[in-house]
């Protein structure tokens, strides 16, 4: 795996971010986990304004929670290989979605990027004085379960959402 870094979205990342989203859609993936609705908002500037506001306690949407969103960028060529978010706490709506979601670009999977993205977000969570991360994953998503386990995740409980059975894993920080 090539080295990656987590970077906050800015306007400079617009073209690469749109290309990242396009690849998911071309693979038939209409949901991009961890993207804070980047899969639903067609206007990059509108999405950027939303994630920027939600990253500050002063401007976070009152219906949401403080959330940091990052592109996982491969250092050697500045290609966005993934996206990951960190929700600083969970409200009632988010209790079954967890503190963190992530996606890896379809053409870059099975290279260890998800494991490294989660490892780096754990460091950021510790820096934010968080005590644990809860991660939700569909039972059928074996690669994500392996990623969570590699980062110390322990099965906590199961739940159903929109007809899917899913699990919550906990990582103690």
UniProtKB/TrEMBL annotation:
PROSITE patterns: GNAT. The keyword Calcium does not apply. Keywords: Transferase. GO terms for molecular function: acyltransferase activity, transferring groups other than amino-acyl groups. Residues 4-173 form the N-acetyltransferase domain. PANTHER family: ACETYLTRANSFERASE. This is GNAT family acetyltransferase.
